[in-house]
Design brief:
The complex is a heterodimer.
Chain A: H1 3-42, E1 45-46, E2 55-56, H2 60-67, H3 69-99, H4 107-115, H5 122-133, H6 144-149, H7 165-190, H8 194-202, H9 207-235, H10 239-244, H11 258-263, H12 273-304
Antiparallel strand pairs in A: 1-2
Helix pairs in contact in A: 1-12, 2-12, 3-7, 3-9, 4-7, 5-7, 7-9, 8-9, 9-12
Chain B: H1 11-41, H2 61-68, H3 72-103, H4 109-120, H5 128-137, H6 144-148, H7 155-166, H8 170-178, H9 183-211, H10 215-220, H11 229-239, H12 244-264, H13 266-274
Chain lengths: ~300, ~280
């Protein structure tokens, strides 16, 4: 085939290709690309309490919003949240997967239990934990000996004490993500050839040694993926905050994450489209870095096949 | 593969017993929130907070209250409609655009591919302010369109399917073309049957993702009739906080469809997770 013929063929393909891409392009353009551009534009505007009469406030608004006490606090809360949920989620996921990876009798039951939390949405998880932790209607606070040993459960309540609120939300979040981490790590563990373990055992490596020298390195890509997903989730944490604490306890705003600051019903900027957009764009920049890492992970995964 | 029996006469046996102990303890801890939820849902309202850890009374009132007074019937219907529409349309848009990227050579393919790639990097949270305005100006607040349309296409699905199409021998397409089979005919008779396993995984994750949407339905729903299960639970959290049996029954009802779906599609779940899909 000559190159002219090829070019003609390519051009003849164009209408078909565009027709096939059109539905996706319209949706992604309208609800992903346009709103991002518009949000960046809105981000330099300030609006009145009704969200109307927006006028330019200068691009400094980004810098101002970034330095504002509210954003700094939300950033700190989010980072703290990630520092609890990511390592804890990872260690629990890997630990349980390794623990339930042997050819033990009945291991299927344990696997089913550890995977089970993948079936819970953030709303389901949060309401379960709300009932567990609430001081008035909660399960724990109404068990005599528990609230005797840990008085904070009864008053002011784990979700209302500035010292424990964020950790409590983080625990419910770790519980909710456990199924996801466990299934991924288990699948990855099963991909490790048994020969490697047997060879290492013949060479005299014990269980611990085999974990660090064989299992752990081979889990590497999966663990990286898990870390990135859990970190992204921490920065997107909204439902658990909304349902468990509403961003409080106040006035410290101990659990107002960045996403909650942007969209929370009780957030200080909920009626200011301009400022909301500013914070949304800042959130985007943070998540962009994480997405880029994740995309590299996906690329690798798909490339090597599964 | 043979399983091992516990033999208490060897240190190995003791280790195995210890392992079971540990597994049992962790199982109890992981299931504890589920246990308290189930107990509360099955008790009469006035008994829930007396001995909350002991199943000393039984009634299904919590479930019937959640279903009728709690409007779970309506919320479930809405979630089913929205999640099903999103799943089916996402499969179509993903397959079709993936096919175009993988099997057709056309001018501008590289640029368009980069555009698709770019949308993967934009988190939904960054676009919500503007999307709410868009949906509002289309008159789609409190409607199925508002809940579903923004999610009818996904770059992730396109990439996933494109990858599968790329692994397909081009000869197949050429042979079909010689036989006079068009693109859509080829997709229907050859393409889709070949990519069905991956399609199954994508379907599962589309469904899970849209079923679990929390923030978006909260933002665009103000009429009770249009709540999904997730935004409905949010409503019950404030209106039914003094009826924990109703609230916990509603939580269980909300979780059951996903439990069933996951039990039916376990294989697709693992396949999808390892391909990089993420629970929404």
């Amino acid at each position: 085939m000559t190159s002219t013929a090829q070019r003609r063929q390519r051009r003849r393909n164009l209408p078909v290709a565009l027709a096939m891409l059109a539905p996706s392009l319209v949706i992604l353009g309208t609800f992903v690309l346009y709103p991002l551009g518009k949000a960046i534009w809105l981000g330099h505007q300030r609006c009145d309490v009704q969200g109307d009469n927006c006028r330019s406030n200068g691009w400094d608004q980004y810098w101002d919003a970034f330095r504002s006490e509210e954003f700094q606090n939300a950033l700190l809360v989010t980072v703290k949240f990630a520092l609890i949920t990511v390592p804890l989620g990872l260690v629990l996921g890997v630990g349980l997967a390794v623990l339930a990876d042997k050819w033990l009798r009945g291991v299927g039951i344990f696997r089913a239990v550890f995977s089970s939390t993948i079936a819970t949405s953030v709303a389901v998880t949060s309401l379960m934990w709300l009932f567990l932790l609430q001081p008035e209607i909660g399960a724990l606070s109404n068990v005599g000996w528990i609230s005797d040993v840990f008085p904070v459960i009864k008053s002011p309540g784990l979700l209302r004490d500035p010292g424990t609120a964020l950790t409590s939300i983080a625990l419910s979040s770790v519980w909710g993500s456990l199924g996801f981490t466990f299934i991924l790590v288990t699948a990855s563990l099963q991909g490790i050839p048994r020969d490697l373990h047997e060879a290492a055992a013949i060479d005299g490596a014990g269980g611990t040694r085999r974990f660090w020298s064989v299992t752990f390195p081979l889990l590497g890509p999966t663990l990286l993926f898990v870390v990135i997903v859990l970190t992204t989730r921490a920065f997107q944490a909204y439902g658990e905050v909304d349902l468990l604490t509403g961003g409080g306890p106040r006035p410290q705003d101990s659990t107002t994450t960045i996403t909650y600051l942007t969209y929370g019903q009780e957030s200080v900027i909920i009626n200011n489209d301009g400022l909301q957009a500013t914070v949304a764009v800042l959130l985007f920049v943070v998540l962009l870095a994480l997405s880029l890492l994740q995309l590299r992970g996906i690329g690798k995964r798909v490339h090597y096949g599964n | 593969m043979a399983t091992e029996n516990i033999n208490f006469e060897s240190p190995r046996g003791w280790r195995l017993a210890g392992r079971y102990m540990l597994l049992a303890v962790v199982t109890a801890v992981v299931l504890f929130p589920v246990y308290t939820t189930v107990i509360a849902a099955l008790k009469p309202g006035d008994k829930v907070l007396q001995n909350p850890l002991v199943p000393d009374a039984f009634t299904l009132d919590g479930f019937s209250d959640a279903w009728t007074a709690g409007h779970l019937d309506r919320y479930l219907l809405n979630s089913f409609v929205v999640a099903t529409v999103i799943t089916i349309v996402q499969l179509v848009t993903s397959v079709v655009s993936a096919y175009a990227f993988a099997m057709l050579d056309f001018p501008g393919r590289g640029v368009l591919f980069v555009v698709f790639l770019a949308t993967l990097l934009v988190p939904f949270e960054a676009t919500l302010v503007v999307n709410r305005r868009t949906v509002d100006s289309l008159g789609w607040l409190n409607s199925y369109q508002g809940l579903a349309v923004p999610f009818l296409a996904t770059a992730f699905g396109t990439f996933l399917m494109r990858q599968v199409f790329l692994g397909m021998p081009l000869d197949l397409r050429d042979a079909a073309a010689i036989d006079g089979v068009g693109h859509l005919g080829f997709l229907r008779h050859v393409g889709i049957p070949l990519v069905r396993p991956t399609l199954g995984a994508l379907a599962l994750f589309s469904f899970l993702g849209s079923w679990n949407q929390y923030l978006w339905p909260n933002l665009i729903t103000t009429e009770d009739d249009m709540n999904t299960v997730q935004s409905g639970l949010r409503l019950l959290r404030s209106s039914a906080l003094d009826e924990p049996n109703l609230l916990m029954a509603a939580t269980i009802i909300a979780a059951i469809p996903i439990v069933v779906v996951l039990l039916l599609f376990q294989r697709q779940l693992v396949r999808g997770l390892t391909a990089g899909a993420v629970k929404g």
